Amino acid sequence: FGALDAKVRKELRRWLREFHDRTGHTTVFVTHDQEEALELADRVVVMSQGAIEQVGSSDDVYDRPNSPFVFSFIGDSASLPVQVADGAVRFQETPIGIAPRGSDITSGTGTLFFRPQDVVLVEDAASPALEGRVATSRRLAGTRIADLDIGKPGSPHHVEIEVPLEATAATGATIRFRPTRWKMFAE
User: Fold this and answer.
1) pLDDT tens, residue by residue, 10-31
2) pLDDT (mean) for 68-87
3) Taking a C-beta distance cutoff of 8 angstroms, is the pair 160, 145 a contact?
4) What's the Cα-to-Cα distance from 157 to each of 14, 39, 109, 115, 177, rounded to whole Å?
5) Are 67 and 130 within 8 A, CB to CB?
6) What are the chain's domains?
């Protein structure tokens, strides 16, 4: 479907899904388009360098990725090096207002992964949060994507987050946020 325009691709995906559901035939569909795979598949196999990384439903691989590769490969994501100590997650030694949970690392260093849409803006300056300066922003349908430079001078990191259209996201503006859904992997 790669050579087709977006509207035709969407129609073909819908048709193929309906055909598959109606006939019950087993179908193997190979694609490099993660959105296409998530939309069409009952089961997704994520591969890297010829090896299987994860097998599961679309929800499994998107919502519960089992490795840093799968998290960053399926859907948009951001990642930051973090430290975990005393029940708090820190970025560059500053608490960011989240605590490890479930299968997250409970102490030491790791990488925090989150999706651009899984953040909340933090207005209270006294509340722990990540903070970044807007490098660029662009409208995407009913939301705005803000490209942020975060971190200490000399050790910058770049992340993209979704913000409401009415949020201040002009170049140079400061945005404070924290992830609402995330996954941490040990280093």
Assistant:
1) 888 888 888 888 888 887 878 7
2) 92
3) yes
4) 38, 31, 16, 15, 15
5) no
6) 6-73 (3.40.50.300), 78-186 (2.40.50.140)
